[in-house]
Amino acid sequence: MDKDTKRDLHSLPKTLAELVGKHIVAAGLLVDEDPERAYKHAAYARRKASRLPTVREASGIAAYTVGKWQEALSDLRAARRMSGRDTFLAIMADCERGLGRPERALEITNDPAAKDLDADERIELRIVAAGARRDMGDVKAALAELQVPELKERRARPYVARLFYAYADVLEELGRKEDAREYFARASSVDREGVTDADERLAAIEGVELVDSDVEDGVVWTDVEEEADEAAAEAEATASRERRDDKGRDHRRDDRRDDRRGGREDRG
Fold first, then answer.
1. Is residue 187 part of a domain?
2. Which of 59, 70, 106, 187 would give a disulfide with 46, using CB separation of 3.0 to 4.6 Å?
3. Rounded distance, CA 129 to CA 230, Å?
4. 17 assigned to some structural domain
5. Domain of 63, in residue numbers
6. How far apart are CA 214 and CA 223, in angstroms?
């Protein structure tokens, strides 16, 4: 449990604070593996302590993970109003996208408070802004939203992987295949936590197939065209052997016929 939640819970009677705290912790633990259960825990905590900003944050995030956009937006707006924190602007903007309101999403992504966010939160805002531009059919503007200094970043951080991936995705939609390949490759190289499917997207562009393996990196790249060539060569070799075998059998049959014919002539 983070310090902000602990501080908020201190304002509740001890028994209630312990109960709400358990549900908040459960929601946090389950949000990735079982979003529906996480949502139920967070919703229970919200019913018991809706005036605590951290509880509203937890409830908003849980609602977001199960696609309850309006509920998530309401809770996160309340949490922001009560706490003064701008941490979840990207999620709020994405909720507007989920509600089919990309223009409102862009208003949130351009909130003046965004300049004071941490790098990962600012990048998430730009990714959501790019998504909103694509929702509106302006792919070039989506690319511009992602052209930030962090595109030159080389460190393996989840938000960098997501930025590279989003940039590559837009490049591919624009038909810039080689540039997309480069940024999918960059995303793959820094995505140590598996937050994207950059490997699969890169494989699709390069015409290779990913297969499971027990090698250390867990992935083997197999050239699909080479596999096809090898299969064709093997088929031709098999056919050639079969033709040779057929010819050999024909020669042996001819020899046996000659032997039988020669034997009849001797007897005659």
1. no
2. 59
3. 46
4. yes
5. 1-85
6. 18
Q: Is 94 among the domain residues?
A: no
pLDDT score of 1: 80
Give the Cα separation of 203 and 215 in Å (integer): 18
Which residues, other chains included, contact 182 with Cβ-Cβ below 8 Å and sequence gap of 6+?
168
256 phi and psi angles, rounded to 5 deg: -65, -35
pLDDT digits (tens, 9 = 90+) for 221-245: 444 444 445 555 565 666 666 665 5
DSSP of 68-137? -HHHHHHHHHHHHHHH---TTHHHHHHHHHHTT-HHHHHHHHT-GGGGGS-HHHHHHHHHHHHHHHHHTT
Whose structure tokens read 């259960």? Answer: 37
For residue 226, what are the β-bridge partners?
none
Q: Which token pair is 119?
A: 């790098």
Q: Is residue 207 part of a domain?
A: no
pLDDT tens by residue, 53-99: 999 999 999 999 999 999 999 999 999 999 999 999 999 999 999 99
> CATH no. for residue 32?
1.25.40
